[in-house]
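Pasting as-is:
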Amino acid sequence: MYLDLNNMEQTETIKYIRESHFIERLVRNKSFWVIFFIITFSYPIYRSMNRVLPPELPRLFKVPEFSLTNSFGKPFGSKDLKGKVYFASFMFTSCPTTCPGLVERIKVAQKRVKGLGQKIGILSISVDPDYDTPEVLHKYARKNRANPYVWSFLTGTRKELRSLLIDGFKVPMGDKEAVDGMVGREKVSLMDIVHSEKLALVDDEGMIRGYYSTDKHGMNKLMIDVGLLVNRKYN
């Protein structure tokens, strides 16, 4: 038996050639990648250069020049804050009501403004100068892990403090009075001083730009406005 090659039917080999998809042709094109990288890297730059900041904060009051005493027993005031954005709180270390919560929120704010370095300052001004000596404030500051390069605890004479708070920051400062309160289930008399629970935001020119509550919304708004003031100054 033999195979007759002459009588074999010739067969055609059909080869399938797959057409390139549009996307494949596009990604193989060098021009595509050039354009892609230009758009990818230039758009964020364009946005940052053309971003529109929110309207400026109102200029409410000018804080007069002042000099108090810090927790190290040294003079501290307007000259040390020149060119800085800062926010001020009003408290006293033996406060039985709102001050502990206020200080806890400022501790959180201190962490949030850490990246601003020396561009930001925090003041806690005592309304009880008879008890809150520099030594007492120093222990209190250390207890609450206050960064002395950012967060300053201040005291002074009663006359100095009343003038600065009432006439300068436009916030109240009362005298120490006994108020009824509860310690556990026992009713006791506690010594309290009327003072503002709000934080005052001051710009680098000594102008008060706003007052903020210490709830979550108020603190978030304060942090945003601090950033706006600092950005406008350094951009």
